Every structure is written in structure tokens, then in C-alpha cells.
Amino acid sequence: MSRARGRPRNPEADRAILQAALEVFIEGGVEGASIEQIAKRAGVGKLTVYRRWDSKEAVLAAAIETARDGIPEAPADLADLPVTTLVRKLLPGLAEAIAEPRLRAMIARIFGASVSHPELMATYWENYVVPRRRNTRALLERAQAEGTIAADADLDALIDMMVGAVLFRLVQPEPLDVAGATAYLESVYRQAGLL
């Protein structure tokens, strides 16, 4: 029987590294981050980071992937609710997410780094944008079936308008608190015909 070489990877170290990488990225962007800073903040050696990721960009992309966990998804037990009821139930969690300063800062950093580090935008796109577009499209298709929005509405354009409105609001100088985020999201969803 052959044994694996070396010690097994420590999942706690993985989590600490990814959390540290996200914090360092949010604070200083790609240029302001280093493997040494990430390792120090995570309480591990640089070699521990390099055993898992071969570059600073790779660990930052992995950290961005894990950040999506803070954005709520619709629980399966809510799937059969009418669209307007579902939206009302999801709004508080969405408002808390977009009022979170770290999310706002992360998105601003990703957009700022997109020209010189397109892999970070690609990671954000695949892990945030694509799944949410798919979920939003399903919600809009249900709204069409329920007669809440027009049967001939261009769903892709509607998604772009909704997402664009929220992203535009996220990068404005004055951050939203939860109450402001709730009011803004209600307005966006109302304009889209979902409330």
C-alpha cells in the first residue's frame, strides 16, 4: 500500500489564506498585494501559499471565488412562491449584501484591475455574474409566465438594466446602509415589474 507524500493539506490554512488574500486585495488592490503579506496575515509561511497557488493573481482569483458565499441565493423551499413574494423574501438578504462595505470595495477593486489583470474579472464574471444572470433570467421567465412582466420583454436587456443600476449605485462615493439598499433595490425591482 502506498502512502501519499507529505502532510495532507490543512483546510483551515486554505481558508485563512483565502480570507487574508481577499482582505489584502480589498485594502490595496492587486498591485498592493504580495504573497508575503497574504502569508503573514494568514499566519502561514510563504511556501504554504505557493504550494497551493503558483502566483499572487491565482490566490487572489481563488479568494474572489470564495467571496460569493456572502451573497444569498433563493432557498429551494421558496421556489414555488409567486415572483413578487419571492422577491420580497429575498430583498433583506440582498440589501445586507450590497450594503456590506467589503463587497463594495471588492467590486471596485475588481473593476479597477480588469484591464491589467483580466483573469480577476473573468473569475468575478464566472462566479458572480453568470450564476446570478441565470437565476435572474429564471425569475424573469416566471414573472412573464405569471403575467407580471410583458411576454415580449427583452429579458437580457432587463437583466443588464437591473444589474447595471445596482453596480452603478455600488461604486458611487456615498455608500448605502441596509435601509437605503432596501429602498434602492425595491425601486429597481419595481421598475423591472417584479414588485
TrEMBL record:
Keyword Nuclease belongs to the record: no
Gene3D superfamilies xref list: Homeodomain-like, Tetracycline Repressor, domain 2
Every HTH tetR-type domain range: 11-71
InterPro entries named among the record's database cross-references: Homeodomain-like_sf, HTH-type_TetR-like_transc_reg, HTH_TetR, Tet_transcr_reg_TetR-rel_C_sf, TetR_C
Secretion signal span: none
Protein name: DNA-binding transcriptional regulator, AcrR family
Keyword entries, A-Z: DNA-binding, Transcription, Transcription regulation
Keyword Transcription: yes
GO molecular function: DNA-binding transcription factor activity; transcription cis-regulatory region binding
Residue ranges of the annotated DNA-binding region, renumbered to this chain: 34-53
PROSITE patterns recorded: HTH_TETR_2
Domain of life assignment: Bacteria
